Write the structure tokens for this entry.
Amino acid sequence: MKIKYIILLFLFTVIGSDLLPAKDIIVKDSILGLGAIYTNKIMTSTGSRKHSVHIIEVSRMIPQNFIKVLKAKNNNSELEKLHDIVSSYDNDNYEILGAVNANFWRAYSNFPIGPTVIDGEVLQMHRHKQWSSIFFDKLNSPVIDTFDISGKIIYGKDSMQIDFTNRRKDSTGIVVYNKYGGETIPYIKSSVISDAFEQAVKENEFDESIADSTEEGLDYDEFRDNLISEKQASMTEFAMKKIVVEYLEKPTVNSPVKCVVRQETEGTVNMPENGCIISFGADIPAYKIPILNDTIQILYQTNIMKKTVFFNSVSGTPRLVRKGKDRHEAIAEGSKGRRFIRHRLPRTAIGFSKDKSKVFIVTVEQGNRKNKTNGANLTELARIMKKLGCYEAMNLDGGGSSIMLINNCNVMKSERPDYSRKLSVGIGVARKKE
């Protein structure tokens, strides 16, 4: 017994540091503002595997701090670098202290996937598979669950279902376009215009050595206006009957918003400053369509927690921490990709403490041989979020899209602080200016 004890003591003395879990190391930290802290830690997840983790921790107890959902070019179908998105949101009322990428988005259309709400305006209604979403109420109190949103227009004693927001799939049903639908409806994406213009320039090149040439360079504004007119006229939405309504109350989810009809129209229509455009498909009888000066209500409702009024949300997958237990739910939410679940990749996540007083916005760097760190698989990411103090947490779009901006610099790429992929939606911490 004595010999065994001596051997164990010897082993512990010589290699004990490898047997014990490695301690987390703070690489750098800074105070972003009262109740808002940025930290870069080298953290362990499972065993002694290390990860370079960037954390924004914000206290909800400070009234000046709030969570802000950010949309590329303020448009449902556009993409933009996160630096440019953040710059467009900084104003005299508040500043963005830090931000990360949020929703996954659909190829080509660029629409964010899953329920997405910004300041009460619904960008996307419907859940994808069984994906999770994080919703915030007026006080920025967060909830993570399998949310879905439905909508209806209340007109007198009748109501009509809203099929989609900010996009039309065919010539039937009712679509509501708000300010994230575009400056005009139908809307033509800026990328379509710029690509077409570049092609037109190539096709209209001429030999400048010909002295008597009467060719003139293409005028972009004229080209843009003509292209928009042609494409809008060919779109299904162009032929739909529409009404333009003014909000009489602030838009919200789970509370009806009173509106008044200001215009009846067809064809192309401009988006109002304080309102939305409701488009009625060919299957909607004319007598059901509200007319000028009618008062209606628009009601968006969540499938759960219908009595809680929500103002902001983003969607992702999977849930990482549920009631303090770190176990990802990728399979249950409909994700089966081996690489997505098991590979050690850059990751982005969001979570909050049990009392909801703190929100954590987190990114994990790609593996780095220099500091012997790794990307994270979903199991490791769940462990990291719990270690940080999350009672609930979920994964956001990651991989090459993972980015964290502090003071509008990408802290995940110190050698390229201005680097960012184009994104659809971001989420950040904002602070009201005095």
Notes: DSSP finds seven helices and 30 strands in the chain. Residues 114 and 127 are 5 Å apart (CA to CA). The first helix runs from residue 2 to 19. Confidence is low (pLDDT under 50) at residues 4-20, 206-216.
